[in-house]
């Protein structure tokens, strides 16, 4: 089991561009979480998805950010019209069905906005 | 409000000395508590969770509901313990609820 995969590992964008971050959960996992870590801060929850459903997006900024987890393929976190304040590490975690197991983290994508 | 507080940003200890990384939380209900560790250039990984009541790599943590604390302890620190440590909590079913993280404590073990 390869673990949670994220790509790209590093992403550089200019202000106003779009950023797409991908997350492939562990095999057999149907729950995906996205967290953001700003410099000198802990990880902050953004959104929780199951296949084709957004379960909880209470941590997502209201504008420019969106997430999906399609039936096939990875989960995507999309940031439109990036600003310098979006520079952060974005982590994805997955967990299996049932809710009893904990979350397993990917290596993260470090987004830098110039 | 759910909150996890790790009061120490950096903790330096000598090899062989005892280690205690502090964690306090606020949560209305019965949370699950975790310690995650991130070694240099590696992903965040689960170190231990309170419901397991086990010792991993010599580390233990006891949930104290009266003091709302979940401090991480190890009697004799090793150089390989140097890493970033995050305390986290979730609702009762950790696979179905988001984790709330503290800001982390960087442990540096000096030879």
Question: What can be said about this structure in brief?
Answer:
The complex is a heterodimer of chains A (114) and B (111). Chain A has 114 residues and is mainly beta.
Tell me what the structure shows:
- The complex is a heterodimer of chains A (114) and B (111).
- With 114 residues, chain A is mainly β.
- In chain A, 0% of the residues lie in helices and 49% in strands.
- Chain B is mainly β and 111 residues long.
- In chain B, 0% of the residues lie in helices and 42% in strands.
- Chain B contains no helices and 11 strands.
- Chain B has strands spanning 3-5, 10-14, 19-21, 24-26, 32-38, 45-49, 60-61, 72-74, 83-90, 100-101, 105-110.
- In chain B, strands 2, 5, 6, 9, 10 and 11 form a 6-stranded mixed sheet that branches.
- The chains are: A mainly beta (114), B mainly beta (111).
The total of helices of chain B stands at 0
Globular, elongated, flat, extended or rod-shaped: what is the shape of chain B? Answer: globular
Structural class call of chain A reads mainly beta
Estimate the global geometry of chain A from the Cα principal axes: globular
The chain-level mean pLDDT of chain B equals: 91
Largest interface: A-B, 30 and 23 residues
What are the SSEs and their pairings?
The complex is a heterodimer of chains A (114) and B (111).
Chain A (H helix, E strand, L loop, with lengths): L4 E3 L2 E4 L5 E6 L6 E7 L5 E8 L2 E4 L8 E4 L6 E5 L8 E8 L8 E2 L3 E5 L1
Parallel strand pairs in A: 2-11
Antiparallel strand pairs in A: 1-3, 3-8, 4-5, 4-9, 5-6, 7-8, 9-10, 9-11
Chain B lengths: L2 E3 L4 E5 L4 E3 L2 E3 L5 E7 L6 E5 L10 E2 L10 E3 L8 E8 L9 E2 L3 E6 L1
Parallel strand pairs in B: 2-11
Antiparallel strand pairs in B: 1-4, 3-8, 5-6, 5-9, 7-8, 9-10, 9-11
